[in-house]
Amino acid sequence: MKQILSLTKRNVKLFFRDKGMLISSLITPVILLFLYAVFLFDIYRDTFTSAIPAGIPYDKDIIDGLVGGLLLSSLLAVSTITVSFCANLYMVQDKVTKARNDLTITPVKPYKIALGYYFGTFCNGMIISLVALTLGCVYLAFTGWYLSFLDILALLGDVILLVLLGTSLSSLICYPLTTQGQLSAVGTIISAGYGFLCGAYMPLAQYGEGLRNVLMCLPGTYGTSLLRNHALRGVYAEMESQNFPAEALDAMKTVSDCHIEFFGHRVEVWQMYLVLAGAVVVLTGGYILIHYIAGKCRKKQKKTK
Amino acid sequence: MEDIIRIEHLHKSYGEVKAVQDISFRVRKGELFAFLGLNGAGKSTTISIMCGQLRKDGGMVEINGKNLDGNQEEIKRDLGVVFQNSVLDKALSVYDNLETRAALYGITGKAFKTRLAELTELFDLKDILKRPIGKLSGGQSRRVDVARALLHQPKILILDEPTTGLDPQTRKTVWGILDDLRKREELTVFLTTHYMEEAADADYVVILDNGKISAEGTPLQLKNEYAGDFITIYGDEEKVKALGKDYETVSAGVYRIAVTDTAEATALILQNPEAFTDYEIVKGKMDDVFLAATGKKLTGGEV
Q1: Which of B47, B89, B95 would best serve as a mutation to test chain A binding (most A beta carbons within 10 A)?
Q2: Does residue B264 carry a pLDDT above 80?
Q3: Domain range summary for chain A, segments of one domain joined by +
Q4: Which terminus has fewer CB within 10 Å in chain B: N or C?
């Protein structure tokens, strides 16, 4: 256990001592927040305002809170995954710099080295994501605060689950990578594509049914919806208390991806947790399995000699 | 003296390339063993197999009485390795690097502090403990590499061209410490180097060429077998010419004649005393041995 702890500590220290890596990780949520606030806030506000049928009374501050919550959830949905990838690149970097050799010449078992990367990535991902969550909350305090303490705890839980998803996914993807070129290719693809794939940049409700069904097969989508549900719960509760028509409220929840459907069936929040947790278990299991198989292959090759 | 490393009929290929071809050798406990060879000769491949970084295709490797097959973990505790280039984490401090690596050998807490204090004293690390590896000079960084390799008090220290690029003073310091450790703790040093003077100081030398052993023995045996002796004569060229032997002009008034051994040199001097008023007889150098054994020239900077 001490060995895993020591390796985790090393990987966390390496991440935070590498100013380039740290700044690029920290700047991702800051840039996203800035872009959302500058370019998307007004568009989203206008979309929601125009979607409300005429004659329904509502507080304009609520719409600002709604859009703020939407942007916060998008920010967290993307940064939890991209930051995990960024943090896990050390697994590849160690192969490039041959620092890995200095670890494997010790009697430490390979699975402990693998777990060191896993936990290191999780810690780094969590630290940066918590910074993003804090920044997002500060932003919400200005645009419209409707979160309860329980909502923040729920958001924290979502962040933990999503960072775990990012950690396990990046561990699996980064495992076979050995060069700097492969490293930057993966980084670019993830940064560019993931936001669209998980429904963070564009709500799923705006996609066609076919594409929506495809995206619903990806676990990240459920993470985004979980975040939306918890970031917007207070806003929708406030609307309800102001006698906002239930039908219009339901439509808004669909448009904001709080309500999502898997091939026509409404997915409940507990089911989203289940899918996300299941994905983490499967991906982490895959990561363990790869190491197990690699270890078996090594032993088998030795026996055949 | 007992054997601490036994390698028998070792084979390793990378596809069609045969990196190591049926090599066998032994290293005795406490000795300074030197592996000589050009790039691609198979030195690093052999070391990597010994350290469990590479799988062998065939043969037997026994280290400290344990067969490599099935005892890798235990063998790793007996080995300390200084890689050709530093592989420590450049962004982390010397202390952080040593602390992390020590933990991988199960050395933590008080045990680590005690060992760190010993190594700090031995390698004069006190002033650089908090500095990042990336900010150290070549010599300082090398001292840390050797200290890291000795963290767990290994029985065998493997040095893969350890003094490449070091200034003579640092090289002397590193070797001073290693010589002391060999004497005090019976540390076996397994060295690959392209510095002939380092190989000449070894107890036993193995010369590798194209994955095969070309020659082996103590430096004296190798010199006697492959290099012969040289007589350097200071004086008149006409008298040297009159000896009827091939000679080489070292500089003005200095000439060198190659002879097979000291007996031939003695005979030549006795037969021609007038030509030998000022002279010296020296053994051939390891460069000559390498050239004779492999037909290739091993020059300092190229290997």
Answers
A1: B89
A2: yes
A3: 2-304
A4: N
Residues of B in contact with A302 (CB under 8 A): 55, 69-70
| Between A212 and A269, residue with greater pLDDT | A269
Tell me the average pLDDT across B19-40.
89
The neighbour count for residue B242, using CB atoms within 10 Å, is 12
B53 → closest Cβ in A97, A99, A105? A105
Looking only at the bridges linking them, the beta strands covering B254-259 and B247-251 are antiparallel
Mean pLDDT for the stretch of residues A94-112 = 89
Closest chain A residue by Cα to residue B60: A305
Residue B301 pLDDT greater than 50, yes or no: no
Reported as half-sphere exposure (CB side, CA atoms, 13 A), residue A163 has a value of: 24
Nearest neighbour of A6 by CB, restricted to B57, B69, B100: B100
Q: What is the pLDDT of residue A211?
A: 83
pLDDT digits (tens, 9 = 90+) for A228-268: 999 999 999 988 888 888 888 888 888 888 888 888 888 89
Residue A67 has pLDDT above 80, yes or no: yes
Distance, CA of A58 to CA of B110 (rounded, Å):
66
Contacts of A18 in chain B (CB under 8 A): 91
- H runs (alpha helix) in chain A: 2-17, 19-35, 41-51, 60-97, 99-104, 110-143, 149-174, 180-197, 209-215, 219-241, 246-255, 269-303
- Chain A: closest CA distance from residue B92 (Å): 7
Statement: residue A303 has pLDDT above 70: no
Distance in angstroms (rounded) separating the CA atoms of residues A211 and B80: 56
CA A256 to chain centre: 17
B12-31 residues labelled b (16+ CB within 10 A) or e (exposed): beeeeebbbbebebbbeebb
